[in-house]
C-alpha cells in the first residue's frame, strides 16, 4: 500500500502516482516528493532505494522493528525513526506505532510498520498549512514531527490526569488496595513505555534543526523551534510524572503502615481493657476461701472492680489516643 505526492513550487501538483515516477518528478526544478509505504516488502524498499540512492544500512533499519528514536546521517540523506503514541484512558495503557523516514533535499519517504500510525492526520496538517509548502521537504518534515510530538504531549497530559486521579484514591478513607496497586503498576508501565519514545525526540528535533542538514530554512525554523519546545515539555513532564508515581506508591505504602499501626494500637488497647474483667473474674474463681466467698458482697465487689478498672483503663487509653 503506497501513497505519493508531488509539490511543485509550493502547490500540490500530483498524487498517488507510481514509485517508479519519483525520479522523474525529482528531475523537475522546485519539486518536492512524498512517498509513504505501509508494511513494505524488501522488494519495495529496494526499488525505492534505487530511485533515491538510499544507503543500504538505512534501508535495513527501515525494514526492522523496534528501532530506537534517532536521526542518522548518510551521504545525501538522513534517516529518522520516531513513534506515534496513543493513550487509552480506560485501561491506562500506551500503544506505540513505529515510523521510519528518509529525508533528502527534495524527498520525504515515510515507512510505516503497520496502519496504526495515522498518516491521514499528517496529510491533514500539510493541507492546513499550505503557506509553508514552498519550503518543500522542511514543510513535510515539520508536519510529520509536529503530529508525532503533539501526540506525545497529549499522551503525557492524559497520564497526568490519571496520576491526579490516583492521588485522590490514595487518600480515600477506605481505599481499595488491590485496585490501587494494579492502577499504579499499570501507570508506571505506561510511563516507562512513553519515556522510551518521548525523551529521545528532543535530540532528534534538535538535530534536524542543525544548519548543515538544511532541513529548517528561514520560513520553517520558527515552526521547528515550536515543535522542539513541545518535545522538551513532554520529556520534562514525563520525567516528573515518573517520579510522582513513585512518590505516590511510597505514600501508599506509608499510609498502609500507618493504618496498620493504628489498628494494632486499638486492638492492643481493647485487649488490655478486656484483660481486666478476665483477671478479676479469674481471681474470684479460685477454689480457696477468700473475703466475700459465697456471699453477695463478694459478687458486688468483683462487679464494681471490673467496672471501675475497665472504665479507668478506657479513659486512660482514650486520653493518650490509644483508642
UniProtKB/TrEMBL annotation:
<dbReference type="GO" id="GO:0015087">
    <property type="term" value="F:cobalt ion transmembrane transporter activity"/>
</dbReference>
<comment type="similarity">
    <text>Belongs to the CorA metal ion transporter (MIT) (TC 1.A.35) family.</text>
</comment>
<dbReference type="InterPro" id="IPR045861">
    <property type="entry name" value="CorA_cytoplasmic_dom"/>
</dbReference>
<protein>
    <submittedName>
        <fullName>Magnesium transporter CorA family protein</fullName>
    </submittedName>
</protein>
<keyword id="KW-0812">Transmembrane</keyword>
<dbReference type="InterPro" id="IPR002523">
    <property type="entry name" value="MgTranspt_CorA/ZnTranspt_ZntB"/>
</dbReference>
<keyword id="KW-0813">Transport</keyword>
<keyword id="KW-0472">Membrane</keyword>
<keyword id="KW-1133">Transmembrane helix</keyword>
<dbReference type="GO" id="GO:0015095">
    <property type="term" value="F:magnesium ion transmembrane transporter activity"/>
</dbReference>
<dbReference type="GO" id="GO:0000287">
    <property type="term" value="F:magnesium ion binding"/>
</dbReference>
<dbReference type="Pfam" id="PF01544">
    <property type="entry name" value="CorA"/>
</dbReference>
<dbReference type="InterPro" id="IPR045863">
    <property type="entry name" value="CorA_TM1_TM2"/>
</dbReference>
<dbReference type="GO" id="GO:0050897">
    <property type="term" value="F:cobalt ion binding"/>
</dbReference>
<feature type="transmembrane region" description="Helical">
    <location>
        <begin position="297"/>
        <end position="317"/>
    </location>
</feature>
<feature type="transmembrane region" description="Helical">
    <location>
        <begin position="267"/>
        <end position="285"/>
    </location>
</feature>
<keyword id="KW-1003">Cell membrane</keyword>
<dbReference type="GO" id="GO:0005886">
    <property type="term" value="C:plasma membrane"/>
</dbReference>
